[in-house]
Structures
1.
Amino acid sequence: MKRTKVKELLSSPKVGSDVLVKGWVRTKRGNKNIVFIALNDGSTINNIQLVVDVASFDEKLLKEISTGACIAVSGKLVESQGQGQSIEINATAIELYGKSDAEAYPLQKKGHSMEFLRENAHLRFRTNTFGAVFRIRHAMAFAIHKYFNDKGFVYLHTPIITGSDAEGAGEMFHVTTLDLKNPPRNDDGSVNFGSDFFGKETNLTVSGQLEGELGALSLGEIYTFGPTFRAENSNTPRHLAEFWMIEPEMAFYDITDNMDLAEDFVKYLIRYALDNCHEDLGFLNKMIDNNLLERLRFVVENEFVRLGYTEAISILTAADKKWDYPVGWGSDLQAEHERYLVEQHFKRPVILTDYPKAIKAFYMKQNDDGKTVKAMDVLFPGIGEIIGGSQREESYDKLIARINELKIPLKDMWWYLDTRRFGSAPHSGFGLGFERLILFVTGMSNIRDVIPFPRTPKNAEF
Ligand code: 4AD
Ligand code: MG
């Protein structure tokens, strides 16, 4: 017999038919005559109930089927006699694939803390919460590709190992095959990377943008979707050392086109989740955050506020609030400021533009005021910055001037600068932090709980 997934069984039940299901035992209860097993196979948050007539099975086998065990069960699909489910399976044969020692299984009981589950990250997929989170994460990844594919964007794979620091923040993980105990050195004592694998200093990418720009300036509209790495020592519920980013880059878009795309894109993704993940979202709304569905609908149905940085600073300095980080024109906004604007002042997502050039990356297009750049950050309730982007400086001379001002080594940037020499064009792009999106969509509160294997300072266990 062919195996049927639980999701399919529940969505179009063929009562009276013989079925075969395979999965992991969530709970087992009953008495000496009859045993009820709730089986989950990951295809849906819902379990299928198995009804086992004790007399028809080997006693030892039934004893070995405990929470966490993996079994294959065949039987007849029937209308349920009990409450809580509409159908169940009257088991006729059970095969035990993998026992799960009840004494040792960490998830034997329910109601573990998120911290405990993080320490058991290899098993947390077996819980309802993490099952829901990772099915939603999958749906969002799929929707991202669908969105851009439908719009004619080209998915461009940018390198994971690079020689550049796109954001200029210097928070990079080195990639090397040199002997760390005894690396070759230059006369001045610095490490000589000439004999390293790539013959130069390399690192894990912090962003695919610079390479993405090369694609956009010939393919027109591209997007990247890959892992990015930042060695910033930020131990917060919003930062990972390894996170996934989606970076669209578009020729002929100005900053307004860029904002329009960003707003349409995130609304599309949230709507996709509402339309396609209702069972998992319903569970998270009930168990994790009672306002989740309302918040998701609100974001989809309302326009984002668009506001200049200078105005935002006026609002923040006028606010009757004690800030941990003082604000004034020129200061970078912290999560507390971003969240105040979004959650208390405007009560909806905000797109902040025209930041001071000193706090933004070298590639952003300068405004005529000489002080600000055409940057745009999208700020979300509960999250703060979910998207960062800008219109790019397309003028070769202005870009060179800025690079010199910031003392960025020019010789490493020749390939990027060439785009401004040969057919430069106005263009824009942004980066959406995938895990921050998943945080928002699932209502989870810690970014470590929306990526299967979180990488944070002092943590790379699994
Ligand atoms: O604002 P960021 O640094 O922008 C860039 O990297 C640009 N190159 C994007 C572009 O214009 N193509 O990062 C973009 C987004 C942030 O808004 C945030 O959502 C996420 O990436 N992000 C992080 N997410 C998790 N952990 C971290 N350490 C993150 N740093 C940034
Ligand atoms: Mg940013």
Note: The two ends are 36 Å apart (CA to CA).
2.
Amino acid sequence: MLQSLSPCKRLRILASRISGRFHMGSAAAHRTVHRLDYQPPPFWLDAVWLQFDLDDASTRLRSRLTVRRNPDVANPEGLWTLDGEALTLLGVRIDGQPLARAAYEVDEHGLTLRGLPEHFELEVDTRIAPADNTALSGLYVSNGVYCTQCEAEGFRRITYFPDRPDVLAPYRVVLRADRARCPVLLSNGNPVSTRAIDPRRVEAVWDDPHPKPAYLFALVAGDLACRSDAFTTSAGREVSLNIFTTDAYIDRTAHAMASLKRAMAWDEQRYGLAYDLDVFNIVAVDDFNMGAMENKGLNIFNTKYVLTDAETATDTDFLGVESVVAHEYFHNWTGNRVTCRDWFQLSLKEGLTVYRDQEFSSDLHVRALKRIEDVRLLKARQFPEDAGPMAHPIRPESYVEINNFYTLTVYEKGAEVVRLYDTLLGEDGFRRGMDLYIERHDGSAATCDDFRRAMADANGVDFTQFERWYAQAGTPELRVDSHHDAELQRFTLTFSQRIPGQAEAGPLVIPVRLGLLGRDGGAIPLRLASDAEAPLERVLVVDSRVAQFVFEGVASPPVVSLLRGFSAPVTLVHTVSDADNLVLLQHDSDLFNRWQAAQDMLGSRVRALADAAEPDATAELSEAVVDGLATVLRDGSLPPGVRAEALTLPDVNTVTAQLDTVDIDAVDRGLTVLKRSLAERLAPHLRAVVEAPRSAQFSLTPDAVGERALRALCLDWLSCSDPSWAHPVLADQYHSAGNMTDRLAALRIVTHATDPGYEALRAELLGDYEQRYTGDKLVMDKWFALQATSPRGAVVEDIRRLRQRADFDVLNPNRARALFGVFAFNNPVRFHAADGSGYRLLGDFLADYDAINPQTAARLASALAQWRRHTPARQAHARATLSALRDREGLSRDTWEIVSKALHDA
Ligand code: TRP
Ligand code: ZN
């Protein structure tokens, strides 16, 4: 209903409806949940039957639960509280007998029953209004299509239920809806039947035999087009595959389907895990809080992670679709068949499944490049999170709102911790651990400890100390000192570890993959005194505060290639000379460390230039360093994507990670000066890349993707050093591009240019893009995002103006993120503006937006948690914005938790 009104009108209606709904905002009103308080459920479910009568304003739901008392829980009063929020209760029956109103209690959190027998059938009738659900949690409407999002605690917004992941049951679901409006009716599992109830209503029945918790429930109903395909498992099961979405989008689903089939084949081949139902359905909707959701047999996706074609999607989009499709598919085993006992175990499924999707992409494309991208993200976003007020272990100890813990730490650091087992045990050992984990826990709800135990037991290894990776927050710092003894031909490496600010933290198990190189770049055999073998690469295990390793037979001081492939999520503290980094850059057998060497040299220049009163890049950049970078640029033996990554300047967060206070303007100046100077000195090479002939054919091979990225980088640099040369090249690339990657790259450079000579072109191209793609949501998100990430001084006013546009649909999270999310996270210089204008911009938006979509609002608010390392004037502005939000009447629990933690002690 609300969906059909204009955004501003909807906003007004919502604001009036929502104000006065909550009267909390104080710590006391928001309960903290603690990991150690876990209690098993008092009742188990043997079966769930649900019947939905779908309607925008009044959906009626009948549920029938077959219930059995949990004999392990003492419960003499037969007491049971079912979770339920924002529901209208119509009736309760036990074994067919209606309960009198006095026989149960209902409050805003749930329904409490007493005196329950050993076994019974519980029936509950409820009513909800999906069209008014702007939080997009529970049952809601996107573009006229009914859909659900139940993770983590959305099912309780559908009906009264034990909404916790350790209560599993098979489900039978009956969907009834308007025949014309909902020709497609989907739920989990296999289809049973469909029939017309009467000329206006239609019914479909679905059956999911695999026991699952409520967070994996899903339904979809609407008028959707479908792309169908099939996959035969190695065991001979014929699986029908379908991707459903709005008719206008269906031509953009081919790549997602191909990705799904690759993922299904890979999981069988690499882990022996095959699909277990007759159908696998994917539905793509425009309005979605996150990327996608792994509901059993019915994955629901944000269109952003399904739709692609060369004209409208970039290479990054294509790769993102492939990896998210795979991620959700892989959850079928790691998440669904084996689920989580409680939400503190979230990383059990997310860290593991991210690790699996990373491996999938690495096997399919260029492994080193995937690793570089993942580590870049980890350092730019997870390391700061782990050093800020929201820092938590991958297995958190407590939360106020679980949705706030779907973090980079749980996902990305969680994946790094899973990768550690692989590094320590080897591929075969890791596979043995996985097999045992699945064998032991299939069909049940497990813990992170269960996973660690399976890895240990399958390999006869003691992983007791390894638990600290789950229990301690913060990025460990690993200091490395080296000493060469020429006389004894010995080389000694001394490691010491700590977590900054946590003197009490115990030592972690840190695998350090390394090699030694001669000055000529040749690999030196690694002969440890204790060992007969001398391989060219080793994994040293540092598991005490200080550890020393002595290599024999090292004639002269070697170059050390440390932490190859980023073998552990730590910050390395060691001094490497330019000379050593240049050897690594050109000769290391580990491509990741070649990239790292370039990044180290660039990063230290940025810091030096940021510190200088009068930054002089020419003096900072020796001939040797420039030559080294030029060699990388031209090195045809390196994948072009890796060359592009090596020369991409490090992120502001990464450059400043070790600093206590950050003057972001100085860092920005350092980056700008460095970029211009490098661009000037490398100009002929950059031009050679841009002018190299290219195939007119669009392809997604790693080389084609890498070449587009490298060309974009060169054009970007040339636009700084030689704007008048680049100007016509960019205009031409924009207009004649045969794919979105090239078109958007040109548009980005022009949109972000600060050179006044680009003003007219900027207006022209932004106008052209708008005309070409108006109404195409995902494509226009890019247009909003480009403007919001511009370094131009006017960006805050630009965003305030863009917010007023009719196509700024505040109910669509992608659009809100495209304007405010990218500003807060990807435009740090303007977001942290000294006058506080960036913080105020976000704060003003969140003040309204929190009432509409608390989950997405809280995610945006987390950008405000990074203020402490900035200059004092900025700190004062951030505190003011945060306090104003915290003190708002009716602020959601989600946003309240973030802002109050961001303000803690302030
Ligand atoms: N489990 C999903 C995934 O990572 C993500 C998810 C968690 C989610 N909570 C959500 C998606 C809420 C949408 C909305 O694969
Ligand atoms: Zn996931």
Note: The first helix runs from residue 7 to 18.
